[in-house]
Every structure is written in C-alpha cells, then in structure tokens.
Task: structure prediction
Amino acid sequence: DIQMTQSPSSLSASVGDRVTITCRASQSISSYLNWYQQKPGKAPKLLIYAASSLQSGVPSRFSGSGSGTDFTLTISSLQPEDFATYYCQQSYSTPKTFGQGTRLEIK
Amino acid sequence: EVQLLESGGGLVQPGGSLRLSCAASGFTFSSYAMSWVRQAPGKGLEWVSAISGSGGSTYYADSVKGRFTISRDNSKNTLYLQMNSLRAEDTAVYYCAKDALFLTGYYDAFDIWGQGTMVTVSS
Result:
C-alpha cells in the first residue's frame, strides 16, 4: 500500500498569511494526488485534483503543485473560512490512501 | 442538485451486523464508481471500499476484507455496505462518495460526499 505523510500535523496562522502544507508519498504516484478540506462535523470537500487542478467553485487562493512523491497545497492569503483540516489522498492505486491530515488553526 | 444521503448507522454489539445505504440523486448514478470512506472519532479519513459503475468490480481495504461487502442497485440509485463481524475499531462516521473522473478520465477524485452516518460498535 502507498503511505501518504503530511507535514506539519498542525499549523497556526493568521488571516492574510500564506500557508503551505506538504504531502509525501511512499512511492511515485505521478500526479495522482488530491486535496480535501474538512470542517468540524462536516463531510470533506474536494479542493484540488490531479495535483494542481482546481475543483470548480474553489477559490483561486488555493493551489497545488508537485509530482512523483512530493506535493504541496498552498493558500495564498488565508481567509477566516479556511481554518479547517486538510487531507491529501492518492488515487494512483487501491487502496486510495489519505494522509493523516493537517489541522490549520487561527493564531 | 447532486446529493448523497446515507442511512443505516447505529449502535451494534461486537460481532454484529449492519447495512448502510446511500441514496444518490442529481446525476447518472450508474455512470460512476462509488466508495465508502470512514472516519473514527477524532481521527483521519480511511478509504474502506469501492465499486465500479456497473457493480462488476469491487475493492476493499485489508482492514475490512472478508467482513464487509459493497454493492449497488442502479435501478434504485442506491449504494450499500453490508458490515458483518463488527469490531470496536469499526466505530466511525461512514461517508459515501462519488468517484468523479477528470481530464478525459485519466484522473479520479471524490467530488461529492454524503453527510455521513455514525456506526458505534460497543457492548
């Protein structure tokens, strides 16, 4: 199985900050990498697919990059509604494993 | 409106069984693979099982293989998860998710999620 490791596990930031979350795969997954946002008590929401493609309706302050084993999710200017937990997920092979999550908190 | 609505969760004793359902609306259900993803209390997301659009292919996480069975009824636009021999570690919110294809079908991701149904395994 492919292991997905996110860093950091938690992060404190302020409104307006630029934030980067990293995801590393245990083997090459090309660009088969998705990012999700989850708020407490809610279902996850797809933000980015295929490593860098923005899902319809997602604000352009979210961006993704990377290929192979190393990927990043960047939020260019944090908004109050962005404080949530973020997960990466590989869709290269089954089981479609998720990272352990990165909790983004208000500083 | 594209929507997924899970049901069937509840409290069950260890070793017991439960069947979850996920009713889909607003899209051509039979055209899409579907998955179940679970989240234990305070923990991260875990992919559990997937099924092709026709129902002909199924996939399972090692943690549930041999105990859980995924199925679908395309005439009823409904996805199911039959869970047998339940264990305490199966306690979680169970989400169904639509597996969308992007970029001419080369990439996939879970683009629509249900609200989740809670399964608690405890004596």
Summary: The CA atoms of residues 68 and 83 of chain B lie 4 Å apart. The longest strand of chain B covers residues 92-102. The mean pLDDT of chain B is 97. The interface with chain A takes residues 35, 37, 44-47, 50, 59, 61-62, 95, 102-103, 106-111, 113-116 of chain B (CB under 8 Å).
